Amino acid sequence: MDGFLVINKPKGITSHDVVTRVKKATNSRKVGHTGTLDPFATGVLTLCINEATSLARFFENDVKEYIALMKVGEETDTYDIDGRVISKCDVSDMDCENIVSVLKGFLGVYMQTPPMYSAIKKGGVPLYKLARKGIEVLREPRAVNIYEMDIIESSIPYIRFRVVCSKGTYIRSLCHDIGEKLGCGAYLSSLHRVRSGGFAVEDSLSLDSISSDTLADKVITIEDMFKDQPSIFSQRLIVIHLPKMM
The domain spanning residue 93 has which CATH number? Predict the structure, then answer.
């Protein structure tokens, strides 16, 4: 069976863990994903099954939508709740209007520096491995696009907000940068991906519901995935079938 599965990733496991579990549960030869989620994050994770893994690159530019919970007044070394607190600030008198103004300032394209605790490589070594050794290196800022961002609720020191962004955006770094602009520090407390490209969390499946017996009913075929993009679908057929004719 070749195609795609949209999984609602639970908290506490890596995206690779999801891939491994689905591969084993479905007896698939190959399984990959189109965009990683941190272990503490939940939500939409699109998987490619067997021949569909060669098509993952066509999803690299998918827009993502998240619901994030940010804590202001504290900063951690990982920019998220799993890190060590390295600074604190009193935010008891923080003005919500100021927070709204700061968030609006991030709309559009901005240069974002990736966190040290990330899989980006420096000299062939993932940054998180260097960070665990206490080594910090310069990271090149990358252009990311924040299309939409609005506050859902605010109960200082916690702020829950929705963000729609481009590929490669680190929500951890976004929270860190917002904290710097506020002058008090901030980190990402929780993250839920509600949309990735054309798939919403309502379309997703629980990890426990996937098995070889149920795969046929749950998988999205390659044909169905690209039925509205016939020219691109033709390119994918070439990618898939050409090696088999050689």
Answer: 3.30.2350.10
**CATH code, domain carrying 239:** 3.30.70
What's the CA angle centered on 97, arms 93 and 100, to 5 degrees?
120
Q: What is the pLDDT of residues 40-76, one digit of tens each?
A: 999 999 999 998 888 888 887 899 999 999 999 999 9
Q: Supply angle C-alpha 14, 165, 226, rounded to 5.
A: 80
Distance CA 122, CA 129 (A): 10
Q: Which residues are catalytic?
A: 38
HEC-encoded secondary structure of 156-175? CCEEEEEEEECCCCCHHHHH
The candidate with the shortest Cα–Cα distance to 80, out of 155, 194, 186, 193, is 186
Cβ(188)–Cβ(78) below 8 Å: no
Return the number of other C-beta atoms located less than 10 Å from residue 3's C-beta.
21
Tell me which of 193, 210, 230 is where a domain ends.
Answer: 193
Across 90-109, average pLDDT: 95
pLDDT band at 229 (very low <50, low <70, confident <90, very high): low
Q: Which domain holds residue 9?
A: 3-62+197-245
